[in-house]
Structures are given as structure tokens and as C-alpha cells.
Amino acid sequence: MRRADRLLRVIQILRRHRRPVKGQAMAEELEVSLRTLYRDIADLVTDGVPIRGEAGVGYVLGQGYDLPPLMFTTDEVEAVMLGLRWVMRRGDPDLVRAAQDAVAKVGTVLPVELRPVLFDTALLVPPSWRTFPDNVDVAALRRAIREQRKVKISYRNEEGTATERVIWPFAITYFDAQRLIVSWCELRQAFRTFRTDRMVEAEVLADKYRERRAVLLKRWIDQEQGAGRGVQGHVFM
């Protein structure tokens, strides 16, 4: 690997993590010695890259630093396009349009030699032949999650029993056939998931729930993992 490419990889590794990254882990990923890694970090700091930390503790990239948008590798472009194609196949109408717009925007900033990788990639997402259509506006539920607003829903379970509940939605998990709203349910005073194809109505309320969305998500994940269910099969919004 060329040194210039390695320096960009160092920055990319730091961008990938929110917490300090140990030098040994970075050196192993880059397949270089720890001494070489420390020298690369020192050179980046000298060039003005805001890397904080020290040997034995770990390193973080300071806020506000970013790479030019053209710094994509071929694999990164294919990964982006594969993800966007999945959204175009599985997302709600607003997300589908957003994915299409994102493809157009990425295409305008890519160098000429990488554009075929974006538009003519051989990585395909097949249609889902067993998708359950949403009965409610998922875009409205996504906005409710971002704004941490309560939602009143009418819901029918698998047996057809109808209930009305007020939920605190904090995540949407996307499966191949359906979408689940991950929530705290005021009726049950517990975490519950609700399929959007079984929702009869969904009304976003003006009231906001009191706990932070990120805290609820962590509590739910901890609960699922503690019960041995895990969340590996979920693709979160």
C-alpha cells in the first residue's frame, strides 16, 4: 500500500469510530507495525489533521474534520450503491426518492473513472416477492422518531385482536418482507415491536417522550441480548 493511501486509511478508520481506537488495532487492520502507525499519526498531526490521543490509550479524530467527497475507493462506491439499491427496493416512497437523489448527487462528485462503478455495478438487489405493504405512512413515523414524539396507533395482532396504544417509537428495523417499529408501549409498560402492515392507523402526537431515543435503543438492545434473542438480523434506521 502506498504511504499516501495508508494515511487516508488511518483517517478513515478514525472516522468510523466514535470512541478512541487503540493503535494496535489500527496497525493490524493496516498490516503495518505499531511503530509505522505512530509515525503516520505524527505526520498527520503535523499536517493539521486534528487527531487526539496517545500511545496505549487510543486515538480519536476531532470534530469538524472531513475528507473531500471524491476520496472513494472502488469497494466503497460499490458498497454505497448496493445499500442505495436496497433502499430503492425496500424503502417507503420518501426513502426511495431520497435514495434516487443520493445516487444522482454522488454521481456528480465522483471522478470520471469511478462513475461506471456507481451506475453500472454488477451488485444487484432482487425484488421481494413476499413484501407486506405498509398500512400507515412510514415517513411520518420516521419523522416522529427523529423528533422523539409519541404516536397513537390502532393495531391488530396476528390473531386479529384490535388494540389502541400510545407508543414511544425510537427505531425502525427493516426486514426483507416487512418493517417493525421498535417502541416503548405505554399500555404494556414494556418494549414492544409493531409491524407496519398490521397498523390500522397511526397518529403522531404533539407530546414528546421524556427519555432520549439513543437511551431507549440501548436499553432495548441490552434487553434483547440479555434474553438471548439478539438483534443481528435487524437493519436499523
Protein model, in words:
- With 237 residues, this protein is an alpha+beta fold.
- The protein has helices at residues 3-16, 23-30, 34-46, 74-90, 93-109, 115-119, 138-147, 213-226; strands at 51-54, 58-61, 149-156, 162-174, 179-185, 190-195, 199-208.
- It folds into three domains: 3-61, Orthogonal Bundle (Arc Repressor Mutant, subunit A); 74-119, no CATH class; 138-226, SH3 type barrels.
- It is 41% helix and 22% strand.
- The strands form two sheets. The protein has a five-stranded antiparallel β-sheet.
- The chain is globular and about 65 Å long.
Question: What order do the helices and strands come in, and which of them pair?
Answer:
Elements: H1 3-16, H2 23-30, H3 34-46, E1 51-54, E2 58-61, H4 74-90, H5 93-109, H6 115-119, H7 138-147, E3 149-156, E4 162-174, E5 179-185, E6 190-195, E7 199-208, H8 213-226
Name a few traits of the molecule.
alpha+beta, globular, single chain, 3 domains, 237 residues, two-stranded antiparallel sheet, five-stranded antiparallel sheet, 8 helices, SH3 type barrels, Arc Repressor Mutant, subunit A
List low-pLDDT spans. Answer: none
Give the domain tally: 3
CATH class of the largest domain: Mainly Beta
What would you say the CATH architecture of the largest domain is?
Roll
The helix count comes to: 8
Rg value = 22 Å
Indicate the CATH topology of the largest domain: SH3 type barrels
Strand neighbour order, sheet with most strands? 6-5-4-3-7
Beta strand %: 15-25%
